[in-house]
Design brief:
elongated; 23 helices; Hypothetical protein af1432; about 0% strand; two-stranded antiparallel sheet; Arp2/3 complex 21 kDa subunit ARPC3; about 450 residues; mainly alpha
Amino acid sequence: MVTSLTLLIGSVVALAGLSLGSSFWLSPVDTGAQVELAFWVVLALLASASPVFTPGGAVVSLSIAPILASTVVLGPAAGGIVAAMGATEWREVRGRIPWYGTLYNHASLVAPAVLAGFVYSGTVGPASLASPQGLAAFMLAGLSYVGLNNLLAAAVIAVRLDRPIAGVLTSNMRSFGLAIVGLAPLSWLMAVAFAFVGPLVAIIFALPLYTTRAAYKSVVEIREMFTQTVRALASAIDARDPSTKKHSENVSTIATDIGRVLGCNESELEQLEWGGLLHDIGKIGVRDAVLLKPGRLDLRERMLMNEHPAKGEEILKGVTKLSPELPLIRHHHEWYNGSGYPDRLIGQAIPYLARILHVADAFEAMTAVRPYRPVPMTNAQALAELRRFAGVQFDPLVVDAFAKTDWATDLSQPSQPAPPARSIPALGQVAALRARESAVAQATAHQN
């Protein structure tokens, strides 16, 4: 991972240096434009002062507007200088970002700025900036800038957090892509106004830039508020039974870790996060006499407990934002061989993410203290139990993916003898399993 990150940083810095050098050679900055260049640098610094931080790790800055404007007004080389100097943030000044992070952040802006400058100059021809052709060329340059900049930003996040780059890029573009592209017309107006009005353009466009940043920040805050609400609701559910404290939060974390191993995209990881937090919300409708029973459940009590996935779906079906999570909540107790509940789905008919959530839920239940099992399994024992029932209760591919997570490889717990291996019944062979209930079945059917 460190080697990959070093290689990526070195490559992007080299790309930025090559881009800036070629721009000075092909389109040098006018020697009489120092004042204009300084103006755009200062404007970019002001726009970069208050970036918006997204949950996925990306940073959204309004510096795109002055960078693009300076690129078309003064040329690609000037745009590269403005990007290199004007993108400085307070975090960098205060030393909160390591030097190599600062280097990458600036390099990932320089190369797109130079590219945008050459795209504009190579497209517009003799047309003036204020013409329809100039606007079209400017929009094309803006798309080039946004595309390359987002690709470089997604690359470093993917390498640093070990996530698929396509998923990170898709998530960032889905959240802010349209809004960022929408800055291009504003940037074009800044460039046109600068050509006709001069430095007063900073005053004219201060309010639009501020309101754009406020809109970005609102998007992030609304999502964060929603996630916090979901977490609070999950904590309230777990609080009904002191023995299941933080169960939902742990299941959510384990499920997303498995999802990363399996290469799930950002949207799927979000579904695993929220689905894990809310998978037991249906237990709100289960009586305390059943939910808090310290011993083994009888048949009638088991049937009542088994209703909680369907009840959870019923509770949340009116929340539009959570509609992607409903299949996870309803089907997280389906068995791979069709003997689960509530719909007895078999194999691949079970939603993919629900199969991931099932493994996470079972592992957390087996390794946690419960009234009916005061001595929990070790991680190694729980993994062995998951392997025993791979193909019966669990998707074998998901179990294999779980085995690659830190949860399965944790050696902090003392090892104990693993349960003996057993043959795996074919799909539909459930009678023997119902007669001989496994430890994992006890855990997942009771209070997990």
